[in-house]
UniProtKB/TrEMBL annotation:
<keyword id="KW-0482">Metalloprotease</keyword>
<keyword id="KW-0472">Membrane</keyword>
<dbReference type="InterPro" id="IPR000642">
    <property type="entry name" value="Peptidase_M41"/>
</dbReference>
<keyword id="KW-0378">Hydrolase</keyword>
<keyword id="KW-0862">Zinc</keyword>
<dbReference type="InterPro" id="IPR003593">
    <property type="entry name" value="AAA+_ATPase"/>
</dbReference>
<protein>
    <recommendedName>
        <fullName>AAA+ ATPase domain-containing protein</fullName>
    </recommendedName>
</protein>
<dbReference type="Pfam" id="PF00004">
    <property type="entry name" value="AAA"/>
</dbReference>
<feature type="domain" description="AAA+ ATPase">
    <location>
        <begin position="233"/>
        <end position="370"/>
    </location>
</feature>
<comment type="similarity">
    <text>Belongs to the AAA ATPase family.</text>
</comment>
<dbReference type="GO" id="GO:0005886">
    <property type="term" value="C:plasma membrane"/>
</dbReference>
<dbReference type="GO" id="GO:0046872">
    <property type="term" value="F:metal ion binding"/>
</dbReference>
<dbReference type="Pfam" id="PF01434">
    <property type="entry name" value="Peptidase_M41"/>
</dbReference>
<comment type="similarity">
    <text>In the C-terminal section; belongs to the peptidase M41 family.</text>
</comment>
<dbReference type="InterPro" id="IPR041569">
    <property type="entry name" value="AAA_lid_3"/>
</dbReference>
<dbReference type="GO" id="GO:0004176">
    <property type="term" value="F:ATP-dependent peptidase activity"/>
</dbReference>
<dbReference type="GO" id="GO:0030163">
    <property type="term" value="P:protein catabolic process"/>
</dbReference>
Length: 650
């Protein structure tokens, strides 16, 4: 009920008498203007007989023009009526109600001016030419026996037209001012909401996060308990984590469980071109929230306005908006009954003043789901979908490491779409596999019919190199293909990433797997000149990892985060270290492929023949390779027994 009253008050406030009168006046002016235009357009579009001025003078000299009509409302043209002989010569039908009635009325007229309603409007009798606007034009016509009439137009219409012509720019300016004034006011969607129907039961997994959020529910329901003991509750709670992990859904569920209004805005809603508008929106939002307390204000992507202030800040307007938000948070107390929940994907970019005690001092991580949570999420999202009993949700959860809840939902939705396009009313495993592939490779398969055997061989050894190295390093290989994709890749190798903490060894192995493609091409190239640029994306990703390895993660002999010291551009020393790591890892990768060349050749030949190799076929090829490689590596491990650096966790 309060929401409807607010709507009515806002409407009454906006539609004041002065604004209504202004709108009516503008509407009437524009209506007259467009009416006049419509009449004018209707006349222009009729079948008017246009005669060039030279031809008109020729007709005058021959005595073929009988009447001329000069209209001041149309100063660029002159209308005239030829003689009866001329019209008959042009095979124009002369009717009793048309031509003869018109000429009779004109001949009886003794005045030199006539009403605009009398002159011909029929296209067959409506002749026009250019108006020379010369002083002797009318006199020359009269001396040659041609009657010249001045056309009288409606004084009211002329007055309105002149007013419009003079005041139209001001009307347009007024209209734009009203439009921008409306745009500058905070949108109703920012301050109007309902109690969400989302509950914790609508969120699969994340039990720890739900438990951490229960203190908010308790505060909203029993604030007196906290006041009695003198506890200071945080004014803001900050959810941070990767995109798609359900931060907004969790905030809605908290409001739903507490049965309080939920005010959702996006940080970018406060970013405005006009000075002071962002801060004004913040103040209006919190004013409405206080009027409807207890409630929850949710600010998504708060980094849009809450970024660290400094030299790289967008503008002073952003600073004013952030300051307004900080002031609102400082003004809250337990009696307000308003809790602000914010969400961000970039916690490190927030201004320190925003996350200090008393503001967003309660920070809750919303991570990517683990396997058990992915099982729960998949089971939740499969409700309402017809899925084949043969689909193993446990296996699918193991396969979807690093998938967010939104990506898992998208996976099942894409699978349902695939099933429909396939003509089936049930989701099968092939639909799941195709959708999984589409998400991973960011596109669909696209076979290149113009691909040569040489190109296919290079791609086959490239992908075989990725797959063999990944397998030897202990990563499950799901599928290898030399079928191109709509994202531009010539082939792909699907592998299952490791779940959990990443070690120094994991990062090295990831680089080796990326280098496997270039190493595979090197195995069949007779010289460096024959190596293609197909590994450009692999090299870019590997370089990014090496950069983090040296500058950020402290894994190369120094426990200094060089970027925190302001080092954005690499020094010669950093480049030298990166080249050394890259060369060592590539040589190790190439050596691994040389020791398993027979398996590399077998896999590449099978890819050239069948274009796609599944996990079972791949394992049958690699069955003995890993054991042989491990035996050789054990000898090396004995020599490096004292080196424990590869077990450093990050």
């Amino acid at each position: 009920m309060k929401k409807n009253n607010n709507n009515d008050n806002n409407l009454k406030k906006y539609f004041t008498k002065s604004r209504i009168l202004t709108i009516i006046a503008v509407f009437l002016f524009l209506a007259m203007f467009f009416r006049d235009n419509l009449v004018s357009n209707k006349q222009v579009k009729s079948d008017t007989q246009y005669i060039p001025y030279d031809s008109f003078i020729g007709m005058v000299d021959k005595g073929e023009v009988e009447y001329v009509f000069i209209n001041n409302a149309s100063p660029s043209t002159v209308q005239f009526l030829p003689t009866q002989a001329y019209l008959k010569d042009k095979n124009i039908l002369l009717t009793q109600d048309g031509y003869y009635k018109l000429t009779e009325e004109l001949s009886k007229t003794k005045d030199t001016s006539i009403d605009s309603k009398i002159i011909p409007t029929d296209g067959k009798l409506r002749f026009i030419t250019e108006n020379p606007n010369s002083e002797n034009f009318k006199e020359d016509l009269l001396t040659k026996g041609i009657r010249v009439f001045s056309v009288k137009t409606s004084e009211t219409l002329s007055l309105i037209f002149m007013l419009l012509l003079n005041f139209l720019p001001f009307i347009l300016i007024l209209a734009f001012m009203m439009y921008f004034q409306r745009r500058m006011e905070p949108a109703d969607s920012e301050v109007v909401t309902d109690v969400p129907d989302t509950r914790f039961q609508n969120i699969a997994g994340y039990e720890n996060l739900k438990n951490d959020s229960k203190f908010i529910l308790d505060f909203l329901k029993n604030p007196q308990s906290y006041e009695k003991i003198g506890a200071r509750l945080p004014n803001g709670v900050l959810f941070y984590g990767p995109p798609g992990t359900g931060k907004t859904l969790m905030a809605r569920a908290i409001a739903g469980e507490a049965s309080v209004p939920f005010y959702k805005v996006n940080g970018s809603d406060f970013v405005e071109l006009y000075v002071g508008l962002g801060a004004r929106r913040v103040r209006k939002l919190y004013k409405t929230a206080r009027e409807n307390a207890p409630c929850i204000v949710f600010i998504d992507e708060i980094d849009s306005i809450g970024g660290a202030r400094g030299a790289h800040r967008g503008s002073s307007e952003d600073d004013k908006t952030l300051t307004a938000l900080l002031n609102e948070l400082d003004g809250f107390s337990a009696k307000n009954g308003v809790i602000t929940i914010a969400a961000t994907n970039r916690l490190q970019d927030l201004d320190p003043a925003l996350v200090r005690p008393g503001r967003f001092d309660r920070q809750v991580a919303v991570p990517l789901p683990n396997k058990e949570e992915r099982i729960q999420i998949l089971n939740l999202y499969k409700e309402g979908k017809k899925i084949s009993p043969s689909i193993d949700i446990d296996k699918l959860a193991s396969k979807t490491i690093d998938f967010s809840p939104s990506e898992l939902e998208n996976l099942l939705n894409e699978s349902a779409i695939k099933a429909v396009t396939r003509g089936s009313d049930i989701i099968e495993q092939e639909d799941i596999d195709d959708s999984y592939l589409k998400i991973i490779i960011k596109g669909d398969k696209k076979e290149d019919k113009h691909q040569t055997e040489t190109e296919k061989k290079i791609i086959a050894y490239h992908e075989a190199g990725h797959a063999v190295i990944g397998h030897l390093l202990g990563k499950p290989i799901l599928e290898v293909s030399v079928i191109g994709t709509t994202s531009g890749a010539g082939g792909y190798t699907l592998s299952q990433p490791k779940e959990g903490l990443r070690t120094k060894s994991d990062m090295k192995n990831e680089i080796k797997e990326l280098y496997g493609g270039r190493a595979g091409e090197t195995m069949i190239a007779s010289s460096d000149d024959e190596i293609t640029v197909g590994a450009v994306n692999d090299i870019q990703r590997a370089t990014r990892i090496i950069n983090s390895y040296i500058k950020i993660l402290g894994l190369n002999g120094s426990l200094i985060n060089l970027e925190e010291l302001g080092m954005k551009r690499p020094t010669d020393e950093i480049i030298e270290q990166a080249e050394q790591i890259s060369n060592e890892l590539f040589e190790e990768t190439l050596d691994m492929l040389k020791k398993n060349k027979n398996k590399l050749d077998t896999l590449a030949n099978m890819l050239m023949d069948k274009s796609l190799v599944d996990s079972d076929t791949f394992l049958s090829i690699m069955n003995d390779t890993k054991e042989e490689w491990e035996k050789e590596e054990k000898v090396v491990d004995l020599i490096k027994a004292d080196d424990k650096s590869d077990e450093t966790y990050i």
